[in-house]
Amino acid sequence: MKPAPFEYVRPDSLAEACDLLIGDEDARIIAGGQTLIPMLAMRLARPTRLVDILRIGELRGIRIERDAIVIGAVTRQVEVERSETVQRTLPLLTKALPWVGHPPTRNRGTVGGSIANADPSAEIPLVAVTLGAEIEIESSSGRMAMTADEFFIGPMLTSVMPGDCVCAVRFPIWAYRWVGTAFHEVSARQSDFAFVAAAAQVAIDGDGKCAEAALGLGGVGDRAVRVEVSTLVGAKPTASAISDVVRAAIRDLEASSDLHATAAYRQRVAAALGIRALEDAFAEARGPREARR
Description:
Uridine Diphospho-n-acetylenolpyruvylglucosamine Reductase, domain 3, 11 helices, 3 domains, alpha+beta, Uridine Diphospho-n-acetylenolpyruvylglucosamine Reductase, domain 2, Enolase-like, domain 1, 5-stranded antiparallel β-sheet
């Protein structure tokens, strides 16, 4: 099937792109096109105009700003995956990226595109929610930022208003000396959409006690969520403590059913993957610490 007719525009600046978007409520942004192009082909999307932002230089790049690493919206996923800066300062995202689609789609897909698409099973939004990243949004009235938890509302639904454009994602950099991360996912095949995914990042102090812990789950409900595991802070993490806090958090988590998995299955897998992710993250954090003794 062929797409319905549309106008194609390639603006030279972010300001021009926002003007084009606000002037046409049926206009859509395109960058990597890994989701939008198939939807156009199947006529599930019928925009009057495509606004191509891929070549806007101010939306590209990876940079460190104080205590955060900022990734431009049109930065390709493969660039982030191969970035030494990201590997050093944002290891959780590095571990999640091999699960994003397939190598050919990561060569074209963009970080901002995955964020804006807001798929509940997507790995990049999951990492953003887990770490409390901020999504920077440009509109005709200026730039603003909101937390990932505020940005994602539901399946394929975000707080972006007509005329707005996601321009960057700001991930916090943890300043702790001993940090560990882990990412686990269950899907029908490698790089397929996740039935359930778990992302964990932890830090320990010199005594081996938990200094900070973050756990996020994706694919369980209508959006990625960060679950409460702060009771681990201040104590040495044990297998029983990790299991108890994860199972308590999962108990009240609303799961969804579909053709791929039932809600009960998703809750069971979420508990298992959440426990495994935290255990692996703590083990990784302890490894460099114990090696330095």
